[in-house]
Amino acid sequence: MKIKKVDLDIVVGVTSKMPTTNMPEFAFAGKSNVGKSSLINALVNRKALARTSGKPGKTQTINFYNVNDSLYIVDLPGYGYANANNEVKAKWGKMVEKYLRNSTNLKAVCLLVDIRHAPNSNDIQMYDWIVSNGFKPVIIATKLDKLKKNQVPKCIKAIKETLNLGKEDIFIPFSSETKAGRDELWQLIEEML
Length: 193
Ligand code: GDP
Known about the structure:
31% of the residues lie in helices and 22% in strands. The chain is an alpha/beta fold. The chain has a single domain, classed as Rossmann fold (3-Layer(aba) Sandwich), CATH 3.40.50. Residues 22-193 form the EngB-type G domain.
């Protein structure tokens, strides 16, 4: 996709009403620090559109980035950071769940996991949420450049086994540094538009 323009159009907070949108939406979820902001920036060729996290978990908003007036990239707040208290976690859960339940334009939810680590219970819960809300999950394994080539198959296997992925589940190794996986992800998004 040729990126002509990108704007942060809508920011949804815990107390906000969910917006009614009129373009297809592609949401991105993952634990804090997984590389979500970097991936979004890489997707839209911007250096600092989405905030890369100095302070993990600070953003408790759902951000809708309008790309070319043809789709929204929806940045869900990162989960699972160590210092969140239960109240914050509960609010996060309610907000994200409300979004997944109510969005009528959501085409796919991309779940980001760090390629170097097996998914944890939060990732598994997010995966189950995606599936139980009827969305096709797209698993994106981030920070591919951090592995040596010969380590990649073993790490991919561990992620697939932990999430219990089937053959038909979409799995994309990605690197914001080298842009590996970027074209594949855009192709997938364009097919779903
Ligand atoms: P977020 O909290 O999920 O939005 O994560 P960020 O995008 O802020 O990334 C967290 C840290 O990982 C930052 O220091 C990034 O520079 C780094 N990072 C993110 N993606 C990659 C990647 O693909 N390769 C490498 N080497 N580092 C990455």
